[in-house]
Structures
1.
Amino acid sequence: MASSPTPSFSMFPRFLSFAYGVLIFSSFCHCRRLQDSLKGLTLDSVRDFLTREEDTIVFSLIERAKYPYNSPTYDPSYLHGKFSLVEIFVRETEAVQAKAGRYQNPEEIPFFPNNLPLSLAPPYKFPQVLYPAAASVNVTKTIWTMYFNDLLSLFTTRGNDGNYALTAASDLVCLQALSRRIHYGRFVAEAKYRDAPQDYNPAIRAQDKDALMKLLTSESQEELVKRRVKKKAMVFGQDITLDENDTGDSNSNRTNYKVDPSIAYHLYGDWVIPLTKLVEVEYLLHRLD
Amino acid sequence: MASSPTPSFSMFPRFLSFAYGVLIFSSFCHCRRLQDSLKGLTLDSVRDFLTREEDTIVFSLIERAKYPYNSPTYDPSYLHGKFSLVEIFVRETEAVQAKAGRYQNPEEIPFFPNNLPLSLAPPYKFPQVLYPAAASVNVTKTIWTMYFNDLLSLFTTRGNDGNYALTAASDLVCLQALSRRIHYGRFVAEAKYRDAPQDYNPAIRAQDKDALMKLLTSESQEELVKRRVKKKAMVFGQDITLDENDTGDSNSNRTNYKVDPSIAYHLYGDWVIPLTKLVEVEYLLHRLD
């Protein structure tokens, strides 16, 4: 906790951007690395990632639900300007995180990519498993609109407790978790494609979105995911007490869930799974470019 | 998602700081408000807050444990400077959160209060329940040192996956949750004092820390809290599957906890509860100033 001078990312030597040259050069080796990295991308590893991300999403909703809706967070007139507190908060926080290197990881996509500062952390060789011509699929605007217009009022109580900065910080954690899961559709699509390219090539060549959507859809698997997410909302959102059986049985506090488990079910059914599949389809459409 | 000009907190009119004048003036009414607010601060409300905060702390540890230790996050040489990535990240994030008004809420205390920008959000009348002469108790340096020197290596795996920005962001969420809980000791002490001032006044007048610590200690209650936190780490950190009984029974995946439940138990026993009591004692020592 040294006191002065106050350190900031802007203090670090500009020559670090030299490292970006190294990164660009290294992209020439992309084909070789892609081959190597794909060994690590399997249908199993993709499923493990998505399952773990469900926990993160449910935790983030429960934490946001600590605060009421807090409408001034979303009302531009609250700050006497054009932009809401949450939009400014997300932009400025993403700038700090960009400088710390967050968006070097291809799994991470900012909501406001324009004018983001460069990373001042040295480049890290994240596995490059995505097909470059397809990797830029981006539905952040749809996620932003869905979250604020449709989802937020469903799992927060009405009211105002003044904690607008904490509210915006919790919103950002939710948005980042949802975006990471939905954009992971690119990795899902790549793993599925590598597993059976012959199944996808005709529809890709025909640029047939409906056929691709059909190939990517498994209603029974989707129902299983929705039910598991609902159960996670029940288990993680219950009030834990030291009752005699000490098992964490989610039946014991059925009325005290911090987020309604059926909201978690519908979040996945109505938005998370459809948007992930949209990302998968858009990715595959460019998989042979 | 307007693109230009990029909004930032610095764009907002300076006359908003006029609002601070209003806030200062309003402190003249502090006694009246203190009396009103205290109606809302009870031993029950304090207990509810602490119990809910346990969930937040356990969630935050589980989320940090997604990433390995990631030592470059903590090594100043990684950024070729005097400060670690995590320290710079926390300072810059706290600055963004300060501008959004986070530290208007007396429950929130920054780790790096020097040179924080003023809040640009209009003042919000948070209940002023703390006794002003005692409210400034601060153990953030102790929490910072405990977290990085003692706790972090206990619940993260060895290794390095390059996600240093995500790691620092997760660390900050843990630190903020721990700090909020520990500094809530000020509210705990105020509620206990208001409940039975006659029990505390002699020890406060004698400035007898040991006597105060004894008054504030209930070993059976502390054991209950530690066991409940351990159980939360079991329930929230298990792998949830759609097994036949569908109850979220934490016995079913006993070896897959994302954070070792005994670490959560010892975190509370060795640090969270003792530090909260330290805050309570320090607060009470100034309760008659």
Note: Chain B touches chain A through 83 residues (CB under 8 Å).
2.
Amino acid sequence: MADKFLRAEIIAVGSELLDLGRVESNSIFLSQRLKSVGARVKRKWVVGDSPQEIETALKTALAASSDVIIFSGGLGPTTDDITRESVAQALGRPLQLDPAIIDDLKRRAAAFGLKLTDNNRRQAMVPKQAEVLDNPNGSAPGLYLQQDGALIFLLPGPPRELKPMTEDQVLDRIRRLKPAPQAVSRCLRLVGLAESQVDHQVEGIYKSYPEVETTILSSLGIIDLHFLWTGPDEPSRARQALDELVARVGEKLGSRVYSERDRELEEVVGEILRERGKMLATAESCTGGWISKRLTDVAGSSDYYLGGVVAYTNQLKVDLLGVNETTLERFGAVSPQTAEQMARGVRERTGADIGLAVTGIAGPGGGSAEKPVGLVHLGLSMNDDTQSRRLQVPGERRFVRLRTVRAALDWVRRSLL
Amino acid sequence: MADKFLRAEIIAVGSELLDLGRVESNSIFLSQRLKSVGARVKRKWVVGDSPQEIETALKTALAASSDVIIFSGGLGPTTDDITRESVAQALGRPLQLDPAIIDDLKRRAAAFGLKLTDNNRRQAMVPKQAEVLDNPNGSAPGLYLQQDGALIFLLPGPPRELKPMTEDQVLDRIRRLKPAPQAVSRCLRLVGLAESQVDHQVEGIYKSYPEVETTILSSLGIIDLHFLWTGPDEPSRARQALDELVARVGEKLGSRVYSERDRELEEVVGEILRERGKMLATAESCTGGWISKRLTDVAGSSDYYLGGVVAYTNQLKVDLLGVNETTLERFGAVSPQTAEQMARGVRERTGADIGLAVTGIAGPGGGSAEKPVGLVHLGLSMNDDTQSRRLQVPGERRFVRLRTVRAALDWVRRSLL
């Protein structure tokens, strides 16, 4: 199948991205946004602050007939910011001082009571036949130039500068100069099934759509099904086929699917709670506040979330949640009985409609033959009905906790459907 | 200054790393571990499942006289896993079936009641003159080969397979075949100062060590000072210089420095609490359980952390923490008075030695001219003494919350010094 999309490459510049454990994340944003103008990223580079490395990357990207080449980083005022100079040199374009940039930099410096240094002046150098991209969020202007049919953009590294510059000054230029079919894609996200189970259930469906590229990705309990139309450029046909495919797969997987976009579970749970007019409270032991943290990541979560208790010790389970001491002695802190009493206790003491509780053994210590690491009991109390569920989660502490958080949030979601 | 280190490149293979918003994180681990054998990563690539892209990356890496080239991903059983074939072809080495791998794959399949498929067999193909790297954690064996003086490793993509294979089978081969000076480096990590403040205070010191490369990195309230010895290969002299530099910088910055390694604040706080034999409890409003989550990220945190209350509403501040209703009416939920009563309340109700409280406006809504978004009051109650501190944190909701979590944890740390 021919790839009708534009070919894009991203070249991130910065020794700190190679050496110091920094994750390069601008390219994730750029890849997603480039899809909206029909460009697909085919190669990503991370190179140090070295003219040679920058030149090799640029020339290799040009040799691959890339339509769009985006540099990020290395436009700042310090001497190791060399993207501008290196690109100009690689393309044989002399740098010229742009008086408008100097004026702007002077204004910025004056606002801080500073004078312009020689280093600052470097930011005002513009390669021949390049356009300046304004940067309202920082001192480093971006640059745009064309070479051998490729559109080349030099963007500043800080995400809060790069993102608006991309939205306002990059995408539209690509759209105008290299019109391409916008990628038509869909996503289904679900929780609570293994990747192989999902694939087994739906491969019969997606394989009957040969013009759709299907990718199944799994990460710690969350499964994403990505569907990308790769057939001929007929947006209406693409949308129709994807709608049909998504509907069929969605029907097969039922309530396990929690979103038709890549949304976080806590957003979906919050939306349902708000719709139903229900207030939630939480009682956490092994997850230690993570469920609560996730719920309150969402702005406006006070509309449906009251708060709760982190009862990391048995004593707090008794004192703050009213768990029975005899229950703890007879069944232990990690038991269905304790989970149910925690859920009921937090619901009653906070006046919530729904009480959600978690108690388990996150590890690495604390496990036994009878109650191994990864054993978790969830409790859910609503409408005077309190239930519990048992999970056995594989993996290390962080994964046990994260999967438990997801399973707990998803239980609230499904109980409200 | 000459770079005496080995040159390494990392080539991550997988279309999902280009297209689907997945972060490539193996290279972060690899970069750190390669330093221990004197290799520094000079370029990172992410390429799709395309023989051409893989060949270009490999040949460009060889042309740059790389000493170590590490591929990650694309060794699985499915038809889009093509790293093995593409590397073999690029180097002109025919693939041969390895009967030992077939036997191993058969055993694995049988354990699941399955038979070997033709796709599985692809994992048993080994390029001529390559060595097989056992994979105790998955079905895809790794591969090792030499070409033009470079050591080339093909590693599986899943981190829980790649990491042990690196530790057990990659690093030692590099150490034996390409002995190099181990990078001597140090790190100081601190919280609560701006990057420019730190640089201003210490540049006079680090600039007097021209053989040390100093990098200052800042991320949401945490500042890392990295010092790397780049002088001649004399480990004892390197260590002496770095010890001296770190001591001088540490003295200048005082108690703001919380670690001489890249450790998380909650680990350091936990260590100090354990040493002092103190038990902590938390009362959180705007951070919604994040402080508690961070504290319990650390295994064994029940030694010094009891739990606490997430009081997202005023009513819960009254009911679960004993905050005075009159205080809430007169001063509001975001006030020093409320923060102090929350801290005292959680300490008294849990029997903890230390009560830590947070109340603030995380945004984007809820701010006013008098109490803007980002206004936070912290409360700390210990030894019958209760205090509060005011923060004004810039940025969006997530950053307000994260910086608050860090400031709160750091206050506990400094109050125990």
Note: The longest strand of chain B covers residues 39-47.
